[in-house]
Amino acid sequence: MVWGPAEFTGLPPRWLIGEGLFAGVLGSGLIVGAGVFGAWTGESAFAAGEVGLACALGLVLHLLLVRAGRAMVGIVAVLAVGLALHTPQAAAGVVLTARGQERSVVVTSVRASEEASGARGRYFCSVEGRDGAPSTARIWRGCTRSVRPGDSLALVYDPKGLVPPRGVEGATSIVDALRSLAGWVVGLVVACVTAVVRSFRLLDRPVASGSAHPGGRGATHQGRPVNGRRRRATGSPKDPSRSHFDGWRR
Prior knowledge:
This protein is of the alpha+beta class and 250 residues long. It is built from 7 helices and 7 strands. It has helices at residues 14-41, 44-47, 50-65, 70-99, 174-178, 182-198, 240-249; strands at residues 101-112, 123-129, 134-139, 152-157, 166-167, 225-226, 229-230. It has a 5-stranded antiparallel sheet with strand order 3-2-1-4-5, with no helix packed on it. The chain has a two-stranded antiparallel ribbon with strand order 6-7. The two termini are 59 Å apart.
């Protein structure tokens, strides 16, 4: 099915929502955690997002195993891959926020990006140290249209050199560094919950006694009261003596 069978009536069971939340939170946590670990330790596979993409693939495979709807699996795949691709940049910000050091540099040149238009475009500044030591860093944070060669900019860098330096844009925290991922994480968790909930099939799990649909009403079971009355058993044998009598009279 495209969106999933969702074979229940009324609100979905709480355990089904919990299963979806667990899958979404665990998947997004592994993706973000892998990126932060790579940026902090310098492990290339983690820092480049390759492990994050593998975690995204694992989440998609999980949804395929529970036979979620194809459309929901596709939505989760897009959100998970998007989160994995955006995590390395945010992870670098976490490292610079946690252990970065600031220094003053001198602007040597200013270049507008190809997409820049007017005052709202992005500009890149080439810089060098105060002592004239050249630097390969090209920064855009703090580099505006009004910056000219010879101006001073504040630069934050990693003492271990594991992440590239950045311009300083005021005081930040680790939460601020990860804020850009909030939309991806929330969307991924919601999509996972929806996919898992809609993947429910009656044949996959036992039905609770007295209910034909989890969360629903109107169950009918043979030999049990239905709408206040007891159903009459069908296919019961007739009284042997009465059958013999009927045959004799015929």
